[in-house]
Amino acid sequence: MRPAPEDPGGERMTGEDAEGIIRRILDGSMKCRRPDHFWKALHDERFIAQDINPILRSHILRGAPEWIEVRHAFRVRLVGKCLRGRPSLLVVDLRVDGPCTLVSIMVDNASPKQRRAR
Fold this sequence. Notes:
The protein is α+β, with helices and mostly antiparallel strands. Helix content is 24%, strand content 27%. Strands 1, 2, 3, 4, 5 and 6 form a 6-stranded mixed sheet that branches. It is globular and about 50 Å long.
């Protein structure tokens, strides 16, 4: 990690760093909290708990990790597919030390739609 002006701790997270933390979440070596507001978003958007890992496994990063001062974490947006194949956006606060937090999940309306052949 390299110094960055947005993080007063002098750290910057790269996409590669974020991918390493996501691999640790998937292999179970890093904890990931799921607060009440995440469960509400999950149910409101008609996802199920089992949709989380397929999104983590199939994701691509949308943008660079962003330092969130009040959370003391780097926020990433992951675009992937849930179990039913819907394009999905998962927002996660990543921490190098300590548990990560699932922030929100929603259908990714920004993904390009396939057109029907005429």
